[in-house]
Amino acid sequence: MSKYIFVTGGVVSSVGKGITVASIGTILKSRQITVSAQKLDPYLNVDPGTMSPYQHGEVFVTQDGAETDLDLGNYERFIDVNLTAESSVTSGQIYSAVIAKERRGDFLGGTIQVVPHVTTEMKERFRRLAEKSKAEVVIIEVGGTVGDIEGQPFLEAIRQMRNDVGRDNILFVHVTLLPYLNSTQEVKTKPTQHSVNELRRIGIQPDIIVCRSDYPISEGIRDKISLFCDVEQKAVIPLPTVSTIYEVPLVLEEEGLGQIIVDKLKLKPRQPDLKQWQELVNLIKTPREPVNIALVGKYVELRDAYFSVREALQHAVLYHERDIELSWIPSETLENDGDYSVLRSAQGIIIPGGFGVRGIEGMVKAATYARENEIPYLGLCLGMQVMVIEFARHVLGSDEPNSTEFDASTRYPVIDLLPGQKDKKTKGGTMRLGNYPCQLVPGSHAAQAYGQNLVYERHRHRYEFNNQYREQLEKAGMVYSGLSPDEQLVEVCELANHPWMVSCQFHPEFGSRPGRPHPLFRDFIGAAKNVLREGAQPPLPLSSQS
Ligand code: GLN
Q1: 509 catalytic per annotation
Q2: How far is the CA of 461 from the centre of ligand 1 (A)?
Q3: Which residue's alpha carbon is at the smallest distance from atom 7 of ligand 1?
Q4: Is a pLDDT exceeding 90 seen at residue 164?
Q5: Which of 381, 438, 493, 504 is catalytic?
Q6: In angstroms, what is the span from residue 313 Cα to ligand 1's centroid?
Q7: What is the pLDDT of residue 400?
Q8: 124 is annotated as an active-site residue
Q9: How confident is the model at residue 339 (pLDDT cuts 50, 70, 90)?
């Protein structure tokens, strides 16, 4: 039977609860303990798939096609597992399931209530992940902050779990923030005391408190939290702000968190092996020559919207022992007079995924710049569609080619709805989602990067390359280097007369891992690092280098 660690958050949101959960996974896995993770999101949406990136940040896609919270990306990268739909639970899913059961007549005669019907459904989801993953330890993060109205049923469900599974099989970890007061120059514990009181009022006594702080936490502060919150002193774990998220497992291990968890859950004691993790952090902290990459997108004001892209770029530059200098360019700013000056210092251009017409013309301009100046280009999903639109405009000598997503009546619909999408009436969960196979063409940049011919990648799109234009664009130099096995869908395309302009209809960023960069990101950076930088001058094209 799996053991459970429930992680709640107190004081404020965004203190790094997700990274803490992911890091607990890392330190347990470093002891050869198998782990899985789950995120509970208290909002009423069934999944974040229909939410604006401004509201929610990136939508992370699992291999089996669930649209989930970006924390799942951190779990996958830190624990190095491929999670499934069972790892993402929202209040929307829970209430829909309970109401569907009521309509079916499952509870005939009964009054349907939050306790026990909603909480039972929640506990069922915890167990389902445990059974499916067969992990020794399942780590479950309760989204939001203790005290939120929406979060109450989840907290009640996890409270009940202590009796259901027995005290040796469950741990409660509370992650809080210790604010620093400049006037008195001290770190304050009162908000932590209040949030622990709030938890206790519900009936949950935390076993471990992880204290986030921008300043060092003294022994005196640990004593105080231990006394007021009734947690062993050694189980008050300081987590000061660190320069890279990949250092968090090392800090938590150093503070003894791994051993405490092993003791409290009565797990088999083993020496942790965090050597690779330590090497990764050492490398991140070593000064390295940067590669300048321009990320041209629609939601760049909110960097969380491209969380996995940023991480995949980081993994790739580390592989090449380089650093990353990422220029975030709102695509709209490129639209007006074609001022490319912000792109001049870029050694590579990346266009990530997105939806809707805003900013598309700016992305097309960035693709023109990359093509004409032979700057390495990586297009991800929408970024591939933009590359196709740009190339078609160039080949047909017209600015009309477009995607029907952006211009429904275009004369040249080079990107159009996928078959089967036209009659879909609802928006939620109806895209082409999750892993699909892709056959690579030997000799292409894509096949060279992967080093194999058949790959599976995660998708999230409604539109695709329109096959009517295949031949025409191919004659002009477009190479279809990745196709669905039935050859009906273009999955990867690249330009023949360009050093490295490669795009894919899927999202390779979700599969990248620290220490194991995704092949397309790795080779994109490999090409970009060879582009000479000339200050504000346009970089020299690769073809002019000997
Ligand atoms: N909007 C495009 C589509 O639906 C691209 C989607 C994406 O970039 N994830 O096909």
Answers
A1: yes
A2: 4
A3: 353
A4: yes
A5: 381
A6: 20
A7: 97
A8: no
A9: low
Q: Give pLDDT, residue 15.
A: 82
Burial bucket for residue 449 (CB in 10 Å: 0-12, 13-18, 19+): buried
Considering only CA atoms, which residue is closest to atom 6 of ligand 1? 461
What is the bridge-based pairing of β-strands 3-9 and 170-177? parallel
Active site residue 507: yes
Could you give the CA distance from residue 481 to residue 503 in angstroms, rounded to a whole number? 9
Closest ligand 1 atom, CA of 431?
4
Scanning 1-70, the segments in alpha helix (DSSP H) are 17-29, 53-56
Reduced to 3 states (helix: H, G, I; strand: E, B; else coil), residue 79 is helix
When pLDDT is cut at 50, 70 and 90, the band that residue 358 belongs to is very high
**Do residues 527 and 520 touch, judged by C-beta distance below 8 A?**
no
CA atoms of 354 and 116, how far apart (whole Å): 41
Tell me how far the alpha carbon of residue 77 lies from the centroid of ligand 1, in angstroms. Answer: 24
pLDDT single digits (tens) 54-85:
888 899 999 999 999 999 999 999 999 999 99
Q: Could you give the CA distance from residue 493 to residue 444 in angstroms, rounded to a whole number?
A: 9
Residue type, 284: I
- Asked if the model's pLDDT at residue 413 lies above 50, the reply is yes
Least confident of 135-139, 182-186, 322-326, 431-435: 182-186
Q: 128 Cβ partners below 8 Å, 6+ apart?
A: 86
- Phi and psi torsions of 433, nearest 5°: -120, 140
Please answer whether residues 408 and 463 qualify as being in contact, where contact means their C-beta atoms are separated by less than 8 angstroms.
no
Q: How far is the CA of 416 from the centre of ligand 1 (A)?
A: 11
Closest ligand 1 atom, CA of 405? 1
Percent of the chain with pLDDT over 70: 97
Q: CA 168, CA 377: separation in Å to the nearest integer?
A: 53
In the predicted structure, residue 338 carries a pLDDT above the cut 70: no
- Is the pLDDT at 546 greater than 50? The verdict is no
Torsion of CA 391, 395, 396, 397, to 10 degrees: 100
Q: Give this prediction's pTM.
A: 0.93
Q: Whose CA is nearest to atom 8 of ligand 1?
A: 353
Give 246's contacts (C-beta < 8 A, 6+ positions apart). 277, 280, 281, 284, 514
For ligand 1, residues with CB inside 6 Å are 353-355, 381-382, 405, 460-463
> Which one of 421, 462, 465, 466 would you pick to mutate in the ligand 1 pocket, going by the greatest count of ligand atoms within 8 A of its CB?
462
